[in-house]
Amino acid sequence: MAYRNYTADGSYWTVRKQGSIYWVVRMRRVNGSYEWLETWGGYERAGAAAGAAAQLAYNQAREDVLKELVGTLHTALDRAGLGALPTPAPVRPPDRSQLPAAAELDEPED
């Protein structure tokens, strides 16, 4: 993984200038060329665009890390035998037609 790929999908947020507009874009390098995956918006000042790109990168990286930690935590708990217990099958009352006649006599009368 290259140093720029600070998201789980190998993309990164950056700024690209076209004309007088600084665009905040999410990019990924594919076969030696760069692919624009998403455009956040355009700014007149480079600093504003860079700040937006940094915030977007932070938020995406944070989400990626949380997803990875949750998965790792659940895997570790399962290995230790502390994972979630399987949901038990629902308990159904017996079918009255399958009960012997003597069992029907044990019920209280209304």
From TrEMBL:
It comes from the Bacteria. Residues 81-110 are annotated as: Disordered. This is Integrase.
